Amino acid sequence: MEEKWIAGTPKLWRDIPLIISFCPGCQHGAAIKTLCEVIDELGMENNCVLVVGVGCNTMASVLVDVDSVMVAHGRPGDVASAMKRVLGKDTMVITWQGDGDTLAIGCEPTVHAAARSEKITTFMVNNANYGTTGGQLAPTSVMGQVTTTSPLGRTPSHGYPIQGSEFLGSLKGVAYSARGAFTSPANYQKTKKYMKRALEKQRDGVGYSFVEILSTCPANWHMSPIESLKWIEEEMIPQFPLGEFKNVDKIE
Question: How far apart are CA 112 and CA 110, in angstroms?
């Protein structure tokens, strides 16, 4: 009888001790677990490079059992573009980033990699603040959100949240753009499908692909894990709606 893996620790998850562990209730671990599952299910593990930026997302570089490189803050888009061009179309190149790494210091590399239609895939974990450095206001902090640098809540004077999935989806060089969350089993299944489709666009050589994943940050939000899930549903999703924003099979 053939055995089939259906649950448990993903095959590509490295079960090693971390110097810094995930905060209780953080969903970065869930996101990395899903990435492991998707790479394995697509059979890409032996020909895949993970480019990781600086932030809570950095732990993916040691937890995912594929070749990986950690680069300067905000520069995964640049490094991944170069690696794809050097290694060739058959190598899957993935950037694994946080919202600041992607849309703040990393905005220029991200936007221009998308505009050039680089055949890479970016996954951005959005927890609406700078999680690693103390919970400051981020490009994705929602209106009214209290952070260490917006103690009275985000107002128009701080600027408005950047809706990365919609923005990048508007660029001609982008083949796929979507936003998901892990607030329920149904949303988990949808998000996993988005991640898989994004990698398939790269595999098929269509163009740049992008998936944003909404994530809890109980430590910096000063909430319990359950309260954090509720806050995503009530505060983040209305400002960052879930779904696919672009899905094409050819860049015209």
Answer: 6
